[in-house]
Amino acid sequence: METANDAGTRRIGPDPGELARMIKGWGRELGFQHIGITDTDLTEAEAHLLDWLGRGWHGEMAWMGAHGTRRSRPDELVPGTLRVISARLDYLPAAAPARSVLEDPVAAFVSRYALGRDYHRVLRARLQKLAERIEARVGGFRYRVFTDSAPVLEKAIAEKAGLGWIGKHTNLINREAGSWFFLGEIYTDLPLPIDEPAANHCGTCRACLDVCPTRAIVAPYRLDARRCISYLTIELRGSIPEELRPLIGNRIFGCDDCQLVCPWNRFGRITGESDFAPRHGLDARRLVDLFAWTEDEFLKRTEGSAIRRTGYEGWLRNIAVALGNARATEDVVAALRSRSHHPSELVREHVQWALARLGQGA
């Protein structure tokens, strides 16, 4: 949403420093764990983005380069933007332990962020409430709310706003909370004071590089998304490269390995947000059970969930790969054979691969 009044009609409000303190207080009242404020200069992040795109590491995510410099220049995306309010909302749910699920070849692993309600809706609504609180205090002002829904360099913005630093795995890390959180932004024309950027505390640690199943983290702070399991199971619409399939294990939507080994995540706290609690037992469901879902069941049980992004065919594709990485038990083989004549060529291809990998090919 965007509102605007002529500067001459704006109500006289508190001085910028006092207003910034108020905004941070309102953010805490609305459930955010951290609010920071920064300017619009993302020159360093822009250079990193252009290099990443130039290497083709974005794969099929053409939208990453489709908006030119508007992604890295907030005032081009929303003219008149002077400041960005960056917000953090923790999401780590009380769920079956991730490591135990990953070690069970017949269980389905879903990234912790996707177990509950779609974070886009939760964050957007809360950021809108924060903007409305500001408006009630200062009168009309120009703003726009973002939650991973437009060309925004949210991690670079959050780093500049003091919410954390971008780690070697390219996720944002906070010293007090680790990396189990979502980010959202409010672009605004309010001349607020800015916060100090966060310092990097990765040191010599390389745990995330060493644990990545597909070696997608090709160097510190360098991610080749084309090899990342999150990309392969969510963003990629076609066939998963055969050489990467065995490395995916039982991960059917996303991958949390780099976060699970990060030493800073020992400070991560279970969220109190009921919206992020696991739905439909997806924190530890059996692969064969999920593979049996009809499209109607998939749509019903993923309503309001980030899992919808992969689509039903992608869902079956991902589970077929995971079943191929399991053991050739009677129920696993029967589940795969039940989809061997699926109308989708994409699904059939991955089912056939899985059966062959289990020594059950035709």
TrEMBL record:
[4Fe-4S] cluster 2 binds at C212, C228, C255, C258. [4Fe-4S] cluster 1 binds at C202, C205, C208, C262. It catalyses: epoxyqueuosine(34) in tRNA + AH2 = queuosine(34) in tRNA + A + H2O. Catalyzes the conversion of epoxyqueuosine (oQ) to queuosine (Q), which is a hypermodified base found in the wobble positions of tRNA(Asp), tRNA(Asn), tRNA(His) and tRNA(Tyr). One of its GO terms (biological process) is tRNA queuosine(34) biosynthetic process. Its EC number is 1.17.99.6. Belongs to the QueG family. It comes from Sulfurifustis variabilis. InterPro entries: 4Fe4S_Fe-S-bd, 4Fe4S_Fe_S_CS, QueG, QueG_DUF1730. One of its GO terms (molecular function) is epoxyqueuosine reductase activity. It is an enzyme of class 1 (oxidoreductase). Binds 2 [4Fe-4S] clusters per monomer. Pathway: tRNA modification; tRNA-queuosine biosynthesis. Cob(II)alamin binds at R71, D148, L172, L183, S230, C255, D256. Monomer. The active site is at D148 (proton donor). Its cofactor is [4Fe-4S] cluster; cob(II)alamin. This is Epoxyqueuosine reductase. The gene is queG. Keywords: 4Fe-4S, Cobalamin, Cobalt, Cytoplasm, Iron, Iron-sulfur, Metal-binding, Oxidoreductase, Queuosine biosynthesis, tRNA processing. One of its GO terms (cellular component) is cytoplasm. Gene3D superfamilies: 3.30.70.20. Residues 190-222 form the 4Fe-4S ferredoxin-type domain. It is found in: Cytoplasm.
